[in-house]
Write a structure and sequence with these properties.
It is built from 1 helix and 3 strands; from the N terminus they run E-E-E-H. By secondary structure, the protein is of the alpha+beta class. The termini are close together.
Length: 66
């Protein structure tokens, strides 16, 4: 069974270790790359390290697929 990627991780509102967040792909502006700033999109989970954000993203993708 293939997992459709509906959630993605991006840097959110900063450039430190804990500024990673999980976003719905549909909430991001088309072609969005780089840091997402406050007001551009609403994060599902924020304040994570990169590995934590990746973990949350993978879990959300698995749940949404089930």
């Amino acid at each position: 069974m293939r997992v459709l990627k509906q959630f993605t991780i991006r840097k959110y509102n900063g450039d430190d270790v804990y500024s990673w967040a999980v976003f719905k792909k549909t909430d991001l502006p088309k072609g969005q790359r780089g840091i997402v700033f406050y007001g551009e999109a609403t994060p599902v989970v924020c304040g994570c390290s990169r590995s934590e954000a990746r973990y949350h993203s993978e879990n959300l993708n698995k749940r949404s697929d089930a």
